[in-house]
Each structure stands twice: as C-alpha cells, then as structure tokens.
Amino acid sequence: MKRKYLRMVRRTYRYLRHPRIRKIKWLSPFTKAIFNKRYWKPCRATVANGLSIGLFCAMLPIPMQMLVAALGCLRGRGNVPVALAACWVTNPVTQIPIWVLQEKFGWWLHESVGVPNIPFLSKLEFSKDIPTFEIFGNTIIDASTVSGNAGNFILGFLAAGITLSLLAYPLVWGISMFLPNRGKALDVWDSSI
C-alpha cells in the first residue's frame, strides 16, 4: 500500500514538473510553492493538515474544490495528495444528500442550539416539487415538496466544514500511533522504491 502511494505521488510530482507545465507564466508563483517536497511527504503533521483542508473544502458548495484545497495546502502546509483525495467525499453521487444534510444541520444549529443566522439570508427560502423516483421498482423518493432556507444552508456547510476539519487532527494522530514509525516524516524520495 505504501509503495503504491509513493509511486503514485512520484509520478504525479514528475508530471507536474514537466517543462511544458513549468513554462506557463501565470502558474509560476504556484508551481514554485507547490513543488516543495514537504507538501508531498506522508507524515502525520502534513497529512493531518491536508486532510483538514481537504474536508473543509469538500463541504463548500463550489465548483473546483480540489483547486481550492491545493492552494489551501500551500498556505496551511498540508499534504497535497491527501487534500485532493479528501475533496472526493463530495462527489456527484453524494453531493445532493450532503447538501440536504447541511441544510438540516444548519436548521438544527439555529433552532436547538441558538446559533444566529445572517438576517438577510435567513429570509431567502426555496422550495422544489420532486416527482416520485424509482429504481428497479423500489421507491427511493416519494412525490413531495422539498423546502430549505439559505441561511440554514450557509450555517450548515460552514459548521460541517469546521467540524470535519477539526476532527481530522485527532483521527490522523490516533491512527499514526499504530504505525511502525508513529507517522514521523521519512525520506520517501529515495530511488529504491
């Protein structure tokens, strides 16, 4: 597993350092920073930062989350491959259910916990009539009207992103305690692998 990860990282790193990509002028400020080998080595500190940044970016309802995560790793000194992989928590299959859960989480935070919403956004409500959706004769969604609040949705995705990004640190540090080297940085760029 470790060897496959290291091979994949080295291939990606070499591809991104190709002269044709390095000649693009507007990419040069980013490529100098992103090619620091520290951002590609798997150690518990950089993996925890990368996972935290990636999970936060995954909860944002924006396109190109992976680009935002890669740029965030430059600032937060996180592992770039881990951040990009963490962005795939929200993929085309899981995106809509996660948005619904974020809106419900924001509603729960506003109603039960008492976290205030942004006043002008809490007045924006949306509703959509959904027809019955069946797969192989099994009803997945009954015909109904789905409604939501923009203030609750924004509160929900920000709170979910912050919560998941904070949970990444104890998760990575806890798992690293079971690793042979306790997740410390090793020289992964030797040519023997």
Protein model, in words:
Keywords: Membrane, Transmembrane, Transmembrane helix. Residues 29-174 form the DUF2062 domain. The chain crosses the membrane at residues 153-175. This is DUF2062 domain-containing protein. It comes from Rubritalea profundi. This protein has 193 residues and is mostly helical. The protein folds into two domains: 2-90 and 161-176, no CATH class; 95-155, no CATH class. 58% of the residues lie in helices and 10% in strands. The chain has nine helices and four strands. The chain has helices at 2-16, 19-22, 28-34, 44-59, 65-76, 80-86, 95-113, 119-122, 150-176, and strands at residues 125-130, 133-135, 138-141, 144-149. A two-stranded antiparallel sheet has the order 1-4. Strands 2-3 form a two-stranded antiparallel ribbon. Strand 2 and strand 3 form a beta hairpin. Helix 4 packs antiparallel against helix 5 and helix 5 packs antiparallel against helix 6 (80-86). It is elongated, with a radius of gyration of 21 Å. The two termini are 12 Å apart.
Q: Specify the biggest β-sheet.
A: 2 strands, antiparallel
Strand content: 5-15%
Our count of helices gives: 9
N-to-C SSE series?
A: HHHHHHHHEEEEH
The percentage helix is 55-70%
